[in-house]
Each structure stands twice: as structure tokens, then as C-alpha cells.
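YM 10:42: Undecaprenyl-phosphate mannosyltransferase sequence, as discussed on the call
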Amino acid sequence: MDNSTANPRIAILIPCYNESATLPRVIHDFKQYFPQSDLYVYDNGSTDNSVQIALAGGVHVTHVAMRGKGQVVRRMFADIEADIYVMVDGDATYDAASAPAAIDLLIQQSLDMVVCTRRPNGQYSFRPGHALGNKLFTRTVNFLFGHQFTDIFSGYRIFSRRFVKSFPAISQGFEIEAEITIHALQLGLPCAEIETPYQERPPGSVSKLNTIRDGLRILRTILLLFLYVRPMAFFGVLFILLAIISLTLGIPVTINFIHTGLVPRMPTAILAASLGLLASLCLACGIILDSVSRSRLETKRCWYLIAASAR
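YM 10:58: structure's back
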């Protein structure tokens, strides 16, 4: 069904892990704004009474045994059939009142994703260091993939059906938001951002994000996706660096050999030749993998078009 349909089916997707302190508010708020829509809580092995709260709230509950937000998102996107998907964390930090405007924007402009960028609405909305980390990672993605998103880690997003059903979702944990953003950039999908208040976590609610561990996993995912999406740029940089070093070391040795017929600096000559060989290999890898990447991109685009044509 097309996003321009008068009465699109809207699904509210809520990843959940030990959110008993906040889940009642999230369910209440989104039911208030979307009384006719289905709410789905995907529980990732909660040890509190989150599941009981969700069932008491009259929402659909699905258990996801494999730990990690990426696992939950993969399952949600595979299971649910709708025209528009609203994905929001179950920690009551996001404003449900922003969703109708974001959905209207998605429909009016025929977009595939609207990111609800976070505007801090309290002194402790972001944990110490998270705001800085978000800016650094966002700028890194913008630099590597050539676009200007302002908040790549927002857990509050609106999706079209064609996005959801063509997204491969290979990440395991909190790096899923970065993968979603890069997927949209790679395919050149129409996206937009809308600002939304970002609240402090209520008492009793604890963030599941580990700053160092998950930060390293996110950085690793971004670099791997850069290699996967733009291999020619990745290996091209290595080729240029290795070639410059090889020429810097090798030219004096070559000039000396031309003048004297001798190679007095044999270790330097071997190092320069080895680096030149590595540079050539990097260039060859870049050319070959770029061709593979283009083939994968064509396949992704075809699946996107198939999902877009399905009604």
C-alpha cells in the first residue's frame, strides 16, 4: 500500500529490555495518539515485569531470545506487516506527540525514513559523554558517506514499508541505528529529519548502552560498512599512502643505481619494492571489490523496488 493512502496501517514497534518503570507511559502515550493502530512490544529477555505490563496494556508481545537491539529490529521488520512503521524505544524519553507530524511528513513527501532528532529537554537527557560521542560518530558518517544527518543514533524513526522490507539488518546490537542510516545513504533513499524533545530517564530506568563497549562496536560497524559500501575509496587511500612511501624510499635508490650501477641500500630497496607491490594489490582489491559492491547495490535496489511495488 502506498504511503499516500488515506488510511494507512500504522504499526508502533517498541524494542524492550527491562523497561517496567517506563513502558506503561510509552504504551499510554502512543495509544492516545494512535488509538486505531497496533502496538507491538518485542521483549529481549527482560527479567522484570515488562512483559506482564505490556500484556496488561493490551499490546502484542513477542519474545526475542537472541540478545541485542539489532536482533530485535531484524525480527520486528520481518514479522510485522504495515504501511508505516513507528519505531521508538521503550524508555519514555521520546515524545509521542511528535509522531503524527513525522508521519505526515513521510506521507506528504513520499519519504522512506523520517528521523526524529533529539533536542535535550533536561539537564540529564544525555548521559555524560554521549552527546559528544553522538556528534563525533554523526560527523564521521557524514564525512565518509557524504550526507548531513544530525543524529544518527536516534531510536525514534518513522519508516515506509518499502524501507522496512528491503533492509537487510545485519547488526547485532546498538549499532543498528548506524546501519539503518548508512543503508539509506547507500541507496540514496528519500529521508528527512524532524526535531523532537528528548526527556530525561524517569527514576528507576537505567540505560542499557555501555559507553566504551558499544562505542567500539559502533565504530567497528561504521568502518566495516564503509569498506563494504565504498571499497574503492577505502583501498584507494591505502594505495596512495603506500605508493607515496614506496616512491619516497625507492626514487633515491633508483637514481643511485642509474649513476653507479650499485644498490648500496639493499634493505631500503627491498622495502620500497614491497610497499609498491602492496600498493598495487590495494588498487587491484579496490577495483575488484568496487565491482562487487556495485553488484550488491543493484541487488539491494531491486529488492527495494520489489518491496515498493508490493501492496
